[in-house]
UniProtKB/TrEMBL annotation:
Coiled coil (UniProt feature): none
The keyword NAD is annotated on this UniProt entry: no
Entry keyword set: Lyase
Molecular function in Gene Ontology: lyase activity; oxidoreductase activity
Protein name according to UniProt: PBS lyase HEAT domain-containing protein repeat-containing protein
Length: 439
């Protein structure tokens, strides 16, 4: 053929580099192929038929991806996109294929395993325990008839019922049920598993109860008499009784369950007055949110572990109200580990923070605080802060501390004078005792 001659028309379409015919990759041809696969899917009766449909669908999807299809006209807002339409049909056919598959024995096993998790991980009420036992026993009977086996639970506890479900799962897996040959059996197993799940979902669990119902079940109101039960709210009266009895556990349960800020406030107040070590974990967790009442409780409990959290709250010039509460709590805990962090607050901008820091150092009682407290007593502009420093020196109570305090017997502040006199009397008593001992 010479240059410029037209190729001969032999009636065949030119082939692409994969060897396929370009005509087979036109939108119309690909759409027809999908029509054929849809008809094939409608006629499929077995898993093998569905596998064949899936294989054909994979091939057409690959052809669509490789095809050089027309692009939509960008100038037309609603222009058709052949590739998008074909891919959408493939997705729809795959969904229909998935819907037509099965059911499988594995589906029943998965449902039973989910029910077993519900059974063992849920806290049931007394009524719920009876309901789940009835539900599982009914399931075991149904599955036993389907598989012609006998399944029994060792007891009606959650663990015993769950063990019986494990026996059913093992029996199903050993059968290796075929989705075609054993379709009826598989369908019955899935129906029984669905009924099991529904029965457990309908059983009464702990979270279905109201707060008052839960507290009643746990005996929270048992301490109330007919007279105190009439008072409103009865929960408050119960808390006061538990506080009098020195029993923090019911108060902690109430604190965990009450949705009322009023009741939470009274629970925390009771725990603070009790200084109950049992409340440490709950209060420490709440204190991490910088809530002041739990910090006060930690101070009353006096556990050194709280210091890792509390020291952070008095650094720099953070919230003065938070610092005041925290410094007081640190002082009540009384660890010498806190001496330096608290002494750093003696120069805080806020007067009350400085005063609380001085008093906290007195409670801690570390002699390393004598010098900075003496400086505050001499130099601070606030009489209230200076009085707190004098009080702290009296609390430390060593000779050096008392000497530093009594030097201010003629101070302009009556409160400082009063503390100086106490220091002087304390030293006189010590010297008198020493003289008597020597004599």
């Amino acid at each position: 053929m010479s240059d410029g001659d037209e190729p001969a028309d032999d009636g065949e379409q030119p082939a692409d580099e994969d060897g396929g015919e370009l005509e087979a990759r036109t939108p119309e041809a690909l759409d027809e192929r999908l029509d054929e696969i849809e008809a094939e899917l409608d006629e499929a009766e077995t898993e093998a038929d569905l596998d064949s449909v899936e294989s054909d669908l994979d091939e057409v999807e690959a052809e669509i991806e490789a095809a050089d299809l027309p692009e939509p006209d960008e100038d037309e807002e609603d222009a058709d996109d052949p590739r998008e339409e074909l891919e959408s049909r493939v997705t729809e056919l795959r969904d229909a294929l998935d819907d037509q598959r099965g059911p499988y024995a594995e589906d029943a096993v998965e449902e039973i395993e989910g029910a077993k998790s519900t059974l063992t991980e849920t806290r049931w009420t007394e009524q719920g325990e009876d309901e789940i036992a009835d539900t599982v026993h009914s399931f075991l009977d149904t599955v036993g008839e389907t598989l012609d086996e006998e399944f029994t639970a060792a007891n009606d506890e959650s663990e015993g019922l769950a063990a019986a479900l494990d026996d059913v799962i093992e029996a199903i897996e050993e059968r290796a049920l075929d989705p075609d040959d054993d379709a009826e059996t598989v369908a019955e197993l899935i129906e029984a598993a669905d009924d099991l799940t529904t029965g457990l979902d309908d059983a009464e669990e702990w979270d279905d109860l109201s707060v008052r119902e839960k507290l009643t079940v746990e005996g929270f109101y048992d301490v109330l008499t007919p007279e105190t039960r009439k008072d409103f709210p009865p929960e408050w009266n119960a808390i006061k009784i538990y506080e009098e009895q020195g029993d923090p556990e019911p108060i902690l349960r109430g604190l965990d369950m009450f949705g009322s800020e009023f009741m939470e406030e009274h629970c925390i107040e009771s725990l603070k007055r009790m200084g109950a070590p049992e409340a440490y974990d709950v209060m420490e967790e709440r204190a991490q949110k910088r809530n002041k009442p739990p910090i006060e409780v930690l101070g009353k409990i006096g556990d050194d572990r709280a210091l890792d959290t509390l020291h952070e709250y008095i650094e720099g010039e953070s919230d003065p109200a938070l610092q005041k509460v925290t410094i007081k709590a640190i002082g009540e805990i009384g660890s010498t580990e806190s001496t330096q962090p608290v002494a750093d607050r003696l120069v805080a901008d806020n007067e009350t923070v400085r005063s609380n820091a001085a008093r906290a150092l007195g409670l801690i009682g570390d002699t390393r605080a004598i010098a900075p407290l003496a400086d505050v007593l001499s130099d601070d502009d606030s009489n209230a802060v200076r009085a707190s420093a004098a009080w702290a020196l009296n609390q430390i109570g060593t000779e050096n501390a008392l000497d530093a305090a009594r030097e201010h017997a003629d101070d302009r502040s009556f409160l400082v004078q009063s503390e100086a006199e106490k220091a002087d009397h304390a030293l006189a008593d010590e010297n008198g005792d020493a003289a008597e001992t020597t004599a």
